[in-house]
What we know:
The protein is of the alpha+beta class and about 220 residues long. The protein has 2 domains: about 1-105, no CATH class; about 120-210, no CATH class. Helices cover about 15% and strands about 40% of the residues. The protein has 4 helices and 15 strands. The chain has a 15-stranded mixed β-sheet that branches.
Amino acid sequence: xxxxxxxxxxxxxxxxxxxxxxxxxxxxxxxxxxxxxxxxxxxxxxxxxxxxxxxxxxxxxxxxxxxxxxxxxxxxxxxxxxxxxxxxxxxxxxxxxxxxxxxxxxxxxxxxxxxxxxxxxxxxxxxxxxxxxxxxxxxxxxxxxxxxxxxxxxxxxxxxxxxxxxxxxxxxxxxxxxxxxxxxxxxxxxxxxxxxxxxxxxxxxxxxxxxxxxxxx
Length: 217
């Protein structure tokens, strides 16, 4: 088990061997827990923390070719990732982490090699309007100016969905599903799972990785 930041530990997990990590773990923070898992026949890693912690873990599993490890997620409260994958939070989520079954789900990553588990939000610089053009596979999502764009993974194929803010507030948000979403913009501010990208981007692509990851549900 990996406890990230000051995330509270639900009672059902009190007897599980645990390693501690920052709120958003870096690559070196996984050394201890990976060394424990490599001697286990059917390794399962429980991540207790935020969506950003889960995304960092999936990213590290992908980059180190450890996607055979079953991954369970225990968030204190419901989040973008629990909504995307229909997971419980708190004590109920902890019980699922212990007794649930791992099933393969599409792994969504971007062109920087960072996994997405909850939601990516794209706006213009400093939160202003987003100018540019975006496609989901062959479907144009928007062209011109919009308020923001959201991308979330799905637990089923084709793997992701994306939407832009409706032009009129009373209209429902229209989601387009696909394998990949591509954005071109003079400058765009990107936030992945609550973590802002350090600099604006002109191009960004999120797409389904060629391997799945094993999510306990």
